[in-house]
């Protein structure tokens, strides 16, 4: 990058961010299935349409960047719910599933847009699959950490289990949110999906010789298991 390009980079980064945030705002407000045109995104950002095309190679690149922004917001909200320092396994599962339900309820158009193609991080993988993988990886770190304190070697179960739970949760909540006459209430859905997740966790734990109490504080479980392992 030349010196001139380097001087302009912060300015260009700022414009790119304005464009992406403008697009996210308009997508939130748009009716289901309606594409927001670039000229409207530019106007909302207070820029000329030509500026958008100078910052992004085309609509595909802009859409990938928008999906990355949406995915980052989703992950940030779910990461807060996954705080292992606060709550029992059951409470953490209920809180996390509730976080997914709340996000999809409050941002239906963003969730819809996230499912329309890839993000900028991996153009060969659709954005929703990449998002599920990111959340599963975060959850997997907690599971492998728990296994590590008692000397259990990861045999791949953690990877399969966390991906299965996260993908099941997203798909089930999406189906419920898109159903005009859902059988379950919001609270029933959260309890049901959290229950499914717990049974998966419990089954994998028992296969490795661990008996977990879903209503005990998770930090206490980790401490007790670590003491017993020592």
From TrEMBL:
DNA-binding region range list: 37-56
Record flagged with keyword DNA-binding: yes
Top-rank taxon: Bacteria
Keyword Iron among UniProt keywords: no
Keyword entries, A-Z: DNA-binding
Every HTH tetR-type domain range: 13-74
Listed InterPro entries: Homeodomain-like_sf, HTH-type_TetR-like_transc_reg, HTH_TetR, Tet_transcr_reg_TetR-rel_C_sf
Protein's recorded name: Transcriptional regulator, TetR family protein
Species assigned in the record: Nocardia rhizosphaerihabitans
Lineage: Bacteria, Bacillati, Actinomycetota, Actinomycetes, Mycobacteriales
């Amino acid at each position: 990058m030349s010196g001139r390009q380097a001087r302009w980079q912060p300015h260009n980064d700022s414009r790119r961010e304005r464009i992406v945030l403008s697009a996210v705002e308009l997508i939130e407000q748009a009716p289901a299935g309606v594409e927001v045109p670039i000229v409207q995104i530019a106007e909302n950002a207070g820029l000329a349409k030509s500026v958008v095309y100078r910052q992004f190679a085309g609509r595909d690149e802009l859409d990938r960047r928008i999906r990355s922004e949406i995915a980052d917001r989703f992950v940030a909200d779910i990461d807060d719910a996954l705080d292992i320092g606060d709550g029992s396994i059951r409470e953490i599962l209920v809180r996390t599933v509730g976080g997914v339900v709340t996000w999809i309820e409050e941002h239906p158009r963003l969730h819809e847009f996230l499912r329309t193609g890839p993000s900028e991080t991996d153009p060969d993988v659709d954005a929703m699959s990449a998002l599920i993988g990111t959340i599963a990886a975060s959850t997997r770190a907690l599971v492998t950490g728990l296994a590590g304190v008692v000397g259990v070697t990861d045999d791949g179960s953690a990877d399969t289990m966390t991906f299965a739970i996260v993908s099941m949760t997203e798909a089930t909540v999406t189906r419920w949110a898109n159903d005009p006459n859902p059988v379950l209430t919001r609270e029933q859905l959260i309890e049901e999906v959290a229950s499914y997740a717990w049974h998966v966790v419990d089954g994998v734990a028992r296969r490795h010789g661990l008996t977990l109490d879903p209503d005990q504080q998770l930090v206490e479980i980790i401490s007790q298991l670590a003491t017993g392992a020592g």
